[in-house]
Amino acid sequence: MNTLQRALLPILFGTLSVPLIANAQDSGFELEEVIVTARKREENLQTTPVAVSAFTEKELEYRQIDSTDRLGDITPNLVFDSVSPSSGSSSAAQIFIRGIGQTDFTPVTDPGVGLYIDGIYMARSVGNVLDFLDIERVEILRGPQGTLFGRNTIGGAVVVHSRRPDADPTASIQVQVGDDSMLYLTGKANMPLSENVFTNVAVSSHDRDGYVTREFDGVDTGDEDSLAGRASLLWTPSDDVQLFVALDATRIRENGAPSVGAGVNDVGAFATFGNGLLESCQAVSINPDFGVAGPPSFPPPGVGVNGAPGCFHPGSFAGPYTTQGTFPVKSDLDIWGVSAELVWDLNDWLTIKSITGYREMEMESSRDGDNTPANIFATEDFYDHQQISQELQFSGTLLDDRMQWLLGLYYFQEDGFNHNPVYLPVGSILSGGLYDNDSQAFFFQSTYDITEQLALTFGIRYTEDTKRFTPDQISLGDSSASGIFEPTWPNFAGFYLPSAGAPIPAGGRLATFDEFKETFDDTNIMLNLAYQWADELMTYVSYSEGFKSGGFDQRFTAFTPEPSSYQPEYADTWEVGLKTDLLDNRIRLNLALFHTSYDDLQIIIRESFNPITFNGGKATIKGGELELTLVPTDRWYITAAVGYLDAGYDELDPSVTAEGNATPVAITNSLVNTPEWSTSLGAAYTFDLGNWGTLTPRLDWSFHDEQYNNAINTPQLFQDDYTLLNAAMTLRTNDGRWESTLAFRNITDEDYVITGNSAFATAASYVSQVYGRPSEWRLSVQYNF
């Protein structure tokens, strides 16, 4: 059976017989009107001519989606991973929509999919794996959002709306327990203070053991240890003015990302040294004074250990949930932010909105790159980030309400530092540097009703980005008597590495400690023509543009007078879509087909063992999404979604294909995180238990097609197609006070790679993988006051 058949047969069968779940009302299930703000105004999902998936908090709870990184299980053409390959943290998001995103987490590299909370752009991928704490809904916008959301939404946007306070006093407490000593505690309260001042507060604590064990010290990685809180206030001094203020904070203290080793290139330079310094490896011998006396006992270059016991080689793999690493690992993260939204309806044709945000983030993490006892490759990460943003929107109607218009101004500034000590068998260096970036934009969008059924939308945005980077790259020396870091020192050069250069003494800089500056600007447009054939049927055709800003490289291995930089990448997308509700609102069907021209791709390769970004070429991505909701009776709720991608390179620049690169990219390679098919299917049925309340069992199934996790298509980072099966059973009392759910995830105990990092073909010699959590269960009890 081919991939297409495996992806579609369960959908076709399930649409007839096996159902899924969403939101239940007191009288049973029904199709709800879903309000979205994909065009920065409140609209019905079914009359919004944009490819958008929207989920309410309750629907996400029913489907066991409790954090942003699980959205990919239910959203077509979305890949949302919680670990960036070299971060060492389980809170550094990799987000891809329709095959466009970013894998790197450094502050000199921007995401390709924007993440927003209450209108505030979350600039850095670190900290963007969010637990859903008292939210109202999540919207996933597919395709370039260059006019209304701006830069770095070239693939799309994930928009989280927190719950706003209201006049209804409510509170709830939830306790969850499960395997791996899981204990989650959550409390929420909505408290009106007066007739026009309302507040709410939510707090949570997550504690859980990890699912990957280090043989060296028994430490479990992939664990959870977090505290989070959120408080907000809504003030409505008049019918025309409202102020919404929100404060959030998160503290994470964990053992690091659940990375495991996937093999060592034993003929690589650092692996040879690492093996040679291990007492257990007798196949390789190295002079302990190699930095002074030269290499009389170095093994010949290119000679492996031939699988000798006690040594590490390409076949060294302890399993998906065991690591042999010995370097200390951790992931500490502190985040807080405040935002304010002021809305003033001046009159019938003019509304002014101000959105202000400030955020801070600090992270300390460390990882054992090779995941072996050998000292081959390890890193630490010290990350400090601050950002401030201000958006002003002026909106209204003209021409007897036939024209809706929006005019906006946007300013964003961020600064901080990212320092990365790198530990190698030939010495250590401090990588990273200081950054200071700002962005300014002007945008306009208008929708004109040509007739009662036909509407034309035009949008335009001009953006100017300024990036400043000060490299802070220092030699930390090595263990030899010469006290230098020099993967190209004379005793080493020409023997294991190709180039020779002057030694860099401890304390010496690998790059000039000067500020370097680049400015990028672009103008994006959007055109959309929508036709409302009937109240329940709308079609549209659109053209949209987006760009992702350029930046600098921050990882060097030899003296570099000036850091290399790269230019923006661009995407232009044509799309047609259909949205309809059928059979007296029993069926909801949304369909989108698209074609994207993707230019100046920012491709990460390794010239040596350090990752470098190049504008590597052009690609074409085409495909579509289908989302179906079926409510045959008020007891059944069935959902299905299918995403399809046909992606490939059209041309590649010699900078990424050159044979001199350690990891060249081939024109036939797959794009990163671009599965051909992504499908999901689910169902819920509610049983009436009389005085006992209701019982709702549900089943969720998702299919993820094969994909590569890096541009060079490393075999160890290839994930074959796999399926995930989840199930849950929820009991609710008739008065709505008590609610309890027994849930199971990954019932079939699938082993699947979500990300990884490869320097296998370089001197660094290693490959690491991160697997998803194996089968698990949890039991939750909630009381609503």
From TrEMBL:
GO cellular component: cell outer membrane
Boundaries of every TonB-dependent receptor-like beta-barrel domain copy: 314-746
Main location: membrane
UniProt keywords, alphabetically: Cell outer membrane, Ion transport, Iron, Iron transport, Membrane, Receptor, Signal, TonB box, Transmembrane, Transmembrane beta strand, Transport
Keyword Signal: yes
Record-linked InterPro entries: Beta-barrel_TonB, Beta-barrel_TonB_sf, Plug_dom, TonB-dep_rcpt-like
SUPFAM superfamilies: Porins (SSF56935)
Record's bilayer topology term: Multi-pass membrane protein
Xref: PANTHER family: FERRICHROME IRON RECEPTOR-RELATED (PTHR32552), TONB-DEPENDENT OUTER MEMBRANE RECEPTOR (PTHR32552:SF81)
Entry's family note: Belongs to the TonB-dependent receptor family.
Protein name in UniProt: TonB-dependent receptor
Lineage: Bacteria, Pseudomonadati, Pseudomonadota, Gammaproteobacteria, Chromatiales
